Description:
Blueprint: E1 3-7, E2 11-16, E3 23-30, E4 37-41, E5 49-51, E6 61-62, E7 65-70, E8 73-76, H1 79-87, E9 93-97, H2 110-119, E10 121-127, E11 131-132, E12 137-141, E13 144-149, E14 154-161, E15 169-175, H3 178-185, E16 191-193, H4 194-202, E17 215-218, E18 221-222, H5 232-245, E19 252-259, H6 263-277
Parallel strand pairs: 4-9, 11-19, 14-19, 16-17
Antiparallel strand pairs: 1-10, 2-3, 3-9, 4-5, 6-7, 7-8, 12-13, 13-19, 14-15, 17-18
Helix pairs in contact: 1-2, 1-5, 5-6
Amino acid sequence: MLKQRTIKEAVEIEGVGLQTGRKVRLKLKGSPANSGINFIRVDLPNKPLLNIQSIDFGNVNKERRTTLGLGPMEIQTTEHLLAALSGLSIDNIIIETDNIELPGLDGSAKSYVEALKKAGIIDQDAPKKILNIDKPVWCKDKDSLLAIFPDDNFSISYALSYENPNLGAQFFSVILDERNFEEKIAPARTFCLEEDALELLKRGLGKGANYENTLVIGKSGPIKNTLRFTNEPVRHKILDLIGDLYILGMPIKGRVVAIKSGHKLNMELVKQLKQSKE
Length: 278
């Protein structure tokens, strides 16, 4: 029997939000079995709590990042931390944050994984809840498609396609266990095209982004940076998808197939799976 997991010791993480540029401090703490993943905004009156399974799906998505909301409370850019929790199979945790957006760190989930492992991951005396996919579920938007099928493992196959010759078409497929996530997915950083970077700043986004925590893809490849993987962008898309799917609050047994999917379509699949689960 697989058991639920949490962290043994509290650990703190400091950084800057990729989109807002605001400084933020997180404190990650262990939580009892069956309590789930809970965010607490310690900067707001009465320190409101948000359990990811109680989010308002009318307030879950903002441009270029995933936002979780419940009433007036919001937590932005949750996907990298949630991906780390999913990859390390952590079911129960308290995440205290003193700002609206989680830190971007190096643009990947690598630092989150390191912090969680430093805190120590322990089993709990309760069986792990797993969402077993028993029938195909899919959604599409124009030329983007996202589907999940029954399978004995959790795997993702992702196809990416851009007109930019330095991105072009990329494909990656992976069975998600802890080792594969940590080695093949967690280090993949967020990216954008050079021509999009200034436009994002004009729209008030990317205030915390730089050439170190974001792969800015120019005419000759990444600007002032080097790739960690030859297909790092498609791996980061998988990272984002893992984090978005973990809004369900439990691991999945199913095969995911994605074509040019982003946060908006990811959330549509999460919504459908949540309704199916209920």
